[in-house]
Amino acid sequence: MGIKRCSSGHFYDCDQYTKCPYCGVQHLDVQGAMDRQNTKKTDQDFPTVAMHPVGNKGMISEPGETVGIIKQKIGIDPIVGWLVCVEGVLRGRDYPIRSEKNAIGRSPNMDICISDDDSISRENHGFIVFNPRKVTFRVQIGESRGLIYLNDEEVLTHEELKAYDIIEIGQTKLIFIPLCGVNFQWT
Asked: Within this chain, do residues 41 and 87 fall inside the same structural domain, yes or no?
């Protein structure tokens, strides 16, 4: 690590930076940018865009969009449980489960996106389903060639999930953690 001192007296790592990172860019109008940032903005200064916040899929409904039962009743699509990766590339990562049907795949448009496991199909490898009427969870096969295992047993159609069950999809093992059940429900 080469330490260098700039003409202003700052010390920095010359192996990591070609110029002093503390001095910044020469001829940059920082004060002017801050003045423009601090001017009062009106609603007309910003375009109106309908967005789905990352990690809150389905929080904003668009006209004509199908809305789940719980979302209709309480206004949001709440988390009803989680899958947590216990073995695989994304070990330690959690995946929220929402009410009704949750598609699993590598594609970012999946409800449960396990992006770094190439042995998982892009879309609809499988589903995690929460039935709000019966307050039950199940794992079911999707449209993929790939298999899904529940506690080391192949899932042929669908199987009911219990707390701490292990689901294996591709090279990824996930533990199931329910939120809703006998002791708690959103509705």
From this structure: no
In whole angstroms, give the CA distance from residue 130 to residue 97. 8
Instruction: For residue 53, give both structure tokens.
Output: 């916040």
Structure tokens at 173: 């093992």
**What number is the average pLDDT over the span 46-56?**
37
One domain for residues 73 and 144: yes
**Are 37 and 96 in a shared domain?**
no
Distance between CA 146 and CA 134 in Å, rounded? 29
Rounded to whole angstroms, the Cα distance separating 33 from 22 reads 18
Per-residue tokens: 2: 């080469």
Which pTM does this prediction carry?
0.62
Question: Which residue in 86, 105, 104 sits closest to 94, CA to CA?
Answer: 86
CB 46 within 8 A of CB 58: no
